[in-house]
Amino acid sequence: xxxxxxxxxxxxxxxxxxxxxxxxxxxxxxxxxxxxxxxxxxxxxxxxxxxxxxxxxxxxxxxxxxxxxxxxxxxxxxxxxxxxxxxxxxxxxxxxxxxxxxxxxxxxxxxxxxxxxxxxxxxxxxxxxxxxxxxxxxxxxxxxxxxxxxxxxxxxxxxxxxxxxxxxxxxxxxxxxxxxxxxxxxxxxxxxxxxxxxxxxxxxxxxxx
Length: 209
What we know:
The chain is mainly beta and 209 residues long. The chain has a single domain (2-187), classed as Lipoprotein localisation LolA/LolB/LppX (outer membrane lipoprotein receptor (LolB), chain A, Clam), CATH 2.50.20.10. Helix content is 11%, strand content 39%. A hairpin with a 6-residue loop joins strand 7 and strand 8. The protein is globular, with a radius of gyration of 17 Å.
């Protein structure tokens, strides 16, 4: 179970069709618009469904608070938790009392969790068939071990900067791909910092964080 979740945070929603190069683009179809959305998206809650190449589906609840805080609370089928506290990502597998932790900047999720990051250095727009869908692929060519993330947005009036994050696909250095699809997104809702606390399951390390 931990391996599948690792691909989520250590590692594109698959795009199988593109538009001709001559297709018209709107102002939202650029890196600057996506950066504006990430800066305006101070908080978000959503339901998510995680899938991998084996076809395994795991539902859960996502909570995000900028900058750097995120929580993937999985459902009853996975006794697993992933938390970002602003500096690091921690993955806790309560079935085996295992904890892994690494800097957010070492993960492609930093593209989502660091709104101050200059996406123009690492991101490129991926054309899509639907004119209301915007896709951006983010990777650091100098750090291929950090993987690739492709984020998918839909143009929605009233959403932060006119875009709604609908999901992403992460691809790690070992070519493990994990997709996240979001639903019931809510922006600007109150989110306490305590939401990103977690309980350490390891012996002799009991207590909250």
